[in-house]
Amino acid sequence: MGADVQISILLEKLNKLKEVVQERFIYPRLRNHVHDAINELQRIRKELEEAGDTSTLLRSVYSSDDTSTLLRSVYSAELLIETFLLNTSIHCRRDDLKNLTKNPPLMAFLPIPPWTQLRFSSKLKNFVKSLKAVHSEPRPRRDHSAINHKTHEFEDDDDELVGFGDVAEKNLVDRLINDDEKSLRVISLVSEKAVGKTALARKVYNRLDVRQSFECRVWLHVPKNIKCKDLLIVLLKQIPMGVLKGVEFMSEGELSALLFQTLMELRFLIVLDDVSSFDVWLMLACPFADAANGSRVILTTRDSKIATDVDPWSRPPLELEPFTDELSWELFSNKFRVGRHDTDTHHQLNSNKVKILKICSGLPPAIVLLGRLLSTIQPNELACVIDRLLIDLDKLDQSPLSNIIALCFRELRSELKLCFLYVALFPKEYEISVRRLMQLWIAEGFVKMSSTQQPEDIAGKYLKELVHRNMIEIATRKEDGRHKTCRLPSFLHDFFFQKSEDIGFIHSHHCRANCTPIDSPAQLSTDSPADQPNTDSSAQNNIDSPAQPNNVCLSDVCFKAQTRGTSNEKINELLKTIIDRRRSRGFVLTKVLDLEGAHRPLLHAKLGKFLSNLRYISLRWTGIDSCPKSIGDLPCLETLDLKYTNITNLSSSIWKAKNLRHLLMNEVSILKPSSSKQSSTSMSNIQTLTGLRIGFEDPKEYGLNRFTSLQKLGLTCHSRSSVEKTWDCISQLNKLQNFKLRSRDHQFGQPSELVIPDNLTTHPSLSKLYLFGVFNFKVGNLPKNLKTLTLSMSKIKEDPMPELGECLPQLNILRLFADSFVGEKMNCLGGGFPKLRVLKLWMLETLKEWIVEEGAMPELEELEIRGCEKLEKSLGLERLSHLKELTLTNMKREFVEDVKQNLASVGRSHILLTNKFKSSTTLACKSSHHLLLLFFFFFFF
């Protein structure tokens, strides 16, 4: 795995170098050495593919010494090429400034000095020699060709990673909601093998009847060696409470008392996933209150003794066994069916049924992975793949699941391998923002560039294919159904994390009491919560050269732990070390600086000068107050994320970042560019610009009308004139899909007048619109193809629902937030909103009556009514035939009871009705003394 992945990375960089050489350099031997290196690496990669990249990878083709030497050569060459390309970029910029009037003609064609080219050419020549030395004689090959894959668009799969039979799922559900026992009980799922304990627990956890049965549900993956205080904080932060501030500063006893008091008021379901020590349960035995209301705990573990000891009074643990042949084949067929319906293929599968069942050994993860893998392979290759897996199963001393995992990884395209391994960088069971992950892939250079497609679109296809193959699972979705967060399945994280570290693809440094943040002045180390989730932490994708005494950090990614914030000392030491390396060597290769969630890191004033190779910077949720002015000097910067910080002003130097494509902020003012020419030339590639406060200015002063690539835009204006001129700019942005406009008073931040022009209706691409401000509502002025509409503080007096339902036939999501409507009666007419799926009515304080006529909103699935305190009557909710979830938050109890009765009268028990009220107590504000008294009272008496 190591050599194959690293060779793919290096080939990408050599191809970039090849373009530079052909365009700018005249030294012929340099061109020749680049071509030789590419050819040699392609030859080695082909031999690796022919040998097979399962557990026998490199054992059958290369000796262990060969492997080590090969990796050292590849790492060293990657460092060499990355440095050379960076220097090329720097010298080219200097050459642009000097121009031909200050340079001899020869130097104009050679941005890099000739002697530098000569030295680089010599080193590249030595690299080619080292490749030939590693492997020069013929090696045994597979007796069949590489597997060919079908090319097709992958469907967006909603099914679970693992599907279980009725028996195990029914037993678990019965113990949760059909058991007459009212006392708190622990239900343990136990198996030493990877049979899908977590998947079964998650499937039941998300069932509609289970969600309806518990007021509070909490899911917690339990890392090894987690501290009791951290565990309590994580649990508390997932429980709905009135006020929860300062828990990080409470003692362990105070936290236990607070958790006890909170759970006493709720019927809860808590899942403790992957418990490896009985001590974890001892931490929670006291604070898990038993209110005799049917609360339950699900615990998954590989240790049968833990499963038995946690609750000796309960029924025996549920011991999960491998699937029977019948159930295995049913699951395999279900996963294989996508995109494959021809008779010949199914005949081949049926003829190999016995072999497939033997390979999978009844393990659901193995069945799922193999089913999806075989569904992508050409029919004439199926028998060959199955036979090879069967041979590996008989010869190799490892589990069937390991063989299948290795094969699934080997059959990925090289770029997908890199993207997949990068996900292993994140902690186990960590929910990764899809937005963040795809931007990181792009910044790292894993996404192949295309002249016809945006990098984000290509990255989205990569993710979709990995999801289809069940190698990444979707954790949550947005309201419109798009992917929001994802994660690496636990069994895959266990397999790949250590292997990724072994080959040097990633390097993590765990925070422990006996560890220093910097292992040595020459080596960069970062923190990861994989083992210790008690701090904000970082990990890095570290392409290090074992042959070099000093490691080179190409990426630093910080994970915000769910527990408590700590000092930024470690982050600051890391950044200081990077800057020091820049001063001593003249360059730093860091591409990614993702400090999301780190606590107020200190950024050097000359960050733009010292880290000129940065492509991605995220300071989201860091709480910092300012950003260095030099950040606009970064020539490669593509993404700058400043959301959820305290930054209110950003230097105008940001307009100089010529490659910037995504700038995300919250109400930030930026000085206008020094000239319109500067903004038009430097920001022509920008696709996302959110949170820009233009105040009283004309947006054309920023050159906004010339940002023709914009797809997502968010602005705040302080005057009617500024709003009107903004709309004029918007009409010229033909690619704009998502627009958010706030009109508010400069002094007090109150909503001010917002005018909507008539020409907005013909906008060709605008599909999402968010408006904050007071305006005279005219639906006829809105784009006809709107799919999402959000209104806030609009002060609309006339009922907007009849016009909205008729004039916006494509609307999927409608959100009416605080004071968007100030009337007393709202009526949804029959036939209105034919495609509406999500409706949210928040804090409409004057609304008293809402009527849903027959045939209105026929596709509505999710409805939330929050803080409409005067709403007394709602007629026709029972007519919403497709309604799945109804959430009532801070509503009158009489209204809630009336809704329940109406739904029950028409047999609508399948609707998930969630009723949330403000907590009657502000628990976190109680004195610690009072909390402890409560705890001891309930526990001992």
Notes on the structure:
With 941 residues, the protein is an alpha/beta fold. Among the domains are: 2-134; 179-319, P-loop containing nucleotide triphosphate hydrolases (Rossmann fold, 3-Layer(aba) Sandwich), CATH 3.40.50; 414-502, Arc Repressor Mutant, subunit A; 511-671, Leucine-rich repeat, LRR (right-handed beta-alpha superhelix) (Alpha-Beta Horseshoe), CATH 3.80.10. 38% of the residues lie in helices and 14% in strands. It is built from 29 helices and 30 strands. The chain has a 17-stranded mixed β-sheet that branches. It has a 5-stranded parallel β-sheet with strand order 2-3-4-1-5. The protein is globular and about 85 Å long.
Itemize the secondary structure elements and their pairings.
Elements: H1 2-24, H2 28-51, H3 64-98, H4 105-109, H5 114-134, H6 166-178, E1 185-190, H7 197-205, H8 208-213, E2 216-221, H9 228-237, H10 252-264, E3 268-273, H11 278-284, E4 296-301, H12 304-309, E5 318-319, H13 325-336, H14 343-351, H15 353-360, H16 364-374, H17 382-395, H18 400-410, H19 414-423, E6 432-433, H20 434-444, H21 455-468, E7 473-477, E8 483-487, H22 490-502, E9 509-510, E10 527-528, E11 537-539, E12 555-559, H23 569-585, E13 592-594, H24 607-610, E14 616-618, E15 639-641, E16 649-650, E17 662-670, H25 676-682, E18 688-695, E19 712-717, H26 720-730, E20 738-743, E21 768-772, E22 788-792, H27 801-807, E23 813-816, E24 825-828, E25 838-842, E26 849-852, E27 862-866, E28 873-875, E29 885-889, H28 893-905, E30 912-916, H29 928-940
Parallel strand pairs: 1-4, 1-5, 2-3, 3-4, 9-10, 12-13, 13-14, 14-15, 15-17, 16-17, 17-18, 18-19, 19-20, 20-21, 21-22, 22-23, 23-25, 24-26, 25-27, 26-28, 27-29, 29-30
Antiparallel strand pairs: 6-8, 7-8, 11-12
